[in-house]
Amino acid sequence: MLDSKALQSIPLIPANTADPAPEYPWPKPYRSAMFLSFDVDAESAWTSKDAVHAQRLITMSYGGYEARVGTPKLLELLDQLDLKATFFVTGWSVDAHPAMAESILKAGHEIGHHGYHHLLPDPGDPWIEEELERGFEALKRRLGVRPTGYRAPYGEFTEELRVALVRHGIVYTSSFRDDVRPYRHRLADGKLGTIELPVTASYDDWMHGLSARFSPRSIFPKEHVLSIWKDELDETRDWGAMVTTVLHPQCSGRPMRLRLLREFLTYAKSCPDLWITTGEKIAENFLRHEAANR
């Protein structure tokens, strides 16, 4: 429980001091956008919670499903629908499953940085820099890729991490939940940070369909999730804004969830005003308008 001293230490400023998101237009003929993205954690989703899980083989098998079935099935679906996506991959997953990682790249999708061990970034953690560097190194060594996009493990951030990402040349991040359009971060010292492509919380499939023995949540049926996703998309389109998915192969790569995703993406593709694309392309659009307005 917080004591009065701890409460008094809370700064009386917004946690995010970035300027409001500019209403830059989307490329014609689009009036709204979908950042189609996946988080590839594999077994690191479980070992990051408890390293001893590495010896619990059934627990590990939930993550291993990504390389064996989930990712291949999702790549097949994206190919059928002629869609390109961004896959944020942990360095551990690249090292443990190089063939899976190579298949994502070979299919023409963007690879993003997602840490190395999928560790939760907490203020003052001494390994934040190491996690970044090991992730960069694995992606370069295995795939020849220097990513421009980053998504934080567990969707958490610290100021140390925000500063480090700028230093490492990351162009855009996608973790915050505080807007419906891209914006530019502002660091604590007033300098500009990365472009943020905010996450749409309702498009995190982990919340609706994780199939694991110890999940505290029930699996939601297709009709419930599809209704949420369609309503979110349609209202966002009316706003001229953006939705961002956080999909996981060990969740959406399961048969029932893949059927749900196929139906949703088919619907999304039928919307002529919706630009479905990668984080890299959305960040490039932001940069073009930012430069023109400067």
From TrEMBL:
| A GO term for molecular function | hydrolase activity, acting on carbon-nitrogen (but not peptide) bonds
What superkingdom heads the lineage?
Answer: Bacteria
Identification of the protein by name: Chitooligosaccharide deacetylase
Protein species of origin? Bradyrhizobium cosmicum
Q: Which PROSITE patterns match?
A: NODB
Q: Kindly list the biological process annotations in GO that this record carries.
A: carbohydrate metabolic process
Pfam family of this protein, just one?
Answer: Polysacc_deac_1
Domain NodB homology, chain residue ranges per copy: 56-277
* Membrane-crossing residue ranges in chain numbering: none
PANTHER family for this protein: POLYSACCHARIDE DEACETYLASE FAMILY PROTEIN (AFU_ORTHOLOGUE AFUA_6G05030)
Q: Which family does it belong to?
A: Belongs to the polysaccharide deacetylase family.
The free-text function statement in the UniProt record for this protein reads: Is involved in generating a small heat-stable compound (Nod), an acylated oligomer of N-acetylglucosamine, that stimulates mitosis in various plant protoplasts.
